[in-house]
Amino acid sequence: MSLENQLIKFTKKGIYCPKGKFYLDPWFPVDYAIISHGHADHARWGMKRYLCTNDSKAILQHRLGAGITIESIPYHSELNINGVKVSFYPAGHVIGSAQIKLEYKGYVVVFTGDYKTQPDFITTPFESVKCHTFITESTFGLPIYNWKSEASLQEELHTWVKLNQSNNRTSVFLGYSLGKAQRLMSLLEGTDEIYVHRSIHNLNTAIAHSGIRLPNTKLWTADLDKKSLQNKIIIAPPAILGSRMLKRLPNPATAVCSGWMQIRGNRRWQAVDAGFAVSDHADWHGLIDAVKSSEAEQVYVTHGSQSVFSKYLNEIGIKADELITEYGEEALSNAETENEKVVIE
Fold this sequence. Notes:
Layout: H1 3-7, E1 9-11, E2 14-17, E3 22-24, E4 32-34, E5 49-53, H2 54-64, E6 70-73, E7 78-81, E8 84-90, E9 98-104, E10 107-111, E11 133-138, H3 150-166, E12 170-174, H4 180-188, E13 194-196, H5 198-208, E14 218-219, H6 226-229, E15 233-236, H7 244-247, E16 252-257, H8 264-270, E17 274-276, H9 284-294, E18 298-304, H10 306-315, E19 320-322
Parallel strand pairs: 3-4, 4-5, 5-6, 10-11, 11-18, 12-15, 12-16, 13-14, 13-15, 16-17, 18-19
Antiparallel strand pairs: 1-2, 2-3, 7-8, 8-9, 9-10
């Protein structure tokens, strides 16, 4: 059996490490799961034991239950599991997100989970890891996707808020509770008071327990006086679109924040006032840079535009194969990609 085959095997339950006897982000219950980050397509309930980064531990306990059996280690720390050296490296996707590095007899496999190579103001930046086999996502694996710098994005959001305030409108940004919401908080910090939906507030509380500093926010509830929200900023999950809670706001201006917003047609489809291309995934160039910098001999491409991206990698001389998984995409039509229950007041 080759060294690669001793480290990874693609099964119906997920990516399995035969030598280590554990799974990477499995989608069915297993004895031992090593988790890249807290989104529910990667961190699912029902595992006997979990391993994650220190910064993900409170997030997993919040989402999966405080009673789960969970161990955590910091980035770059190494844990020997049945002879396999396991370590985490920053993925730049959301708070606590990690690439999972496996090493056995000098052979290295890196599983990225979801990642973003472009630095932002709140997430531990992505770090390239040299390896022999690289398992990468490809959510935005098309040349059309090229993100703005964080500074340019911040200026765009601030300009929109000021425009709304000049028209006595409340700025409502719609983004997923884990990752997008905290990033929007960091981008909008200092503009005005920021209110957040309860699902985001509760998750922020869990994150803060890990010692991570978040921008100051206030809880948005249905009983708040309308005048107190006039011209302010609200961050909420996409599930509130069309809700009574949103309709109670004084003259709201709504904006969907997602990588899909780079395609203008999606803005019209959502019937909102604005769309901003804010994504927690790597863009086209970020994906290519991550693959090249890994110097991997073999690349496996998972969820997203995997056929296009793997074909391109082969055309430029990098051996790549498609890998079918149950990991989800950043989707506009779902209330939450991570399947979080959102209470609409």
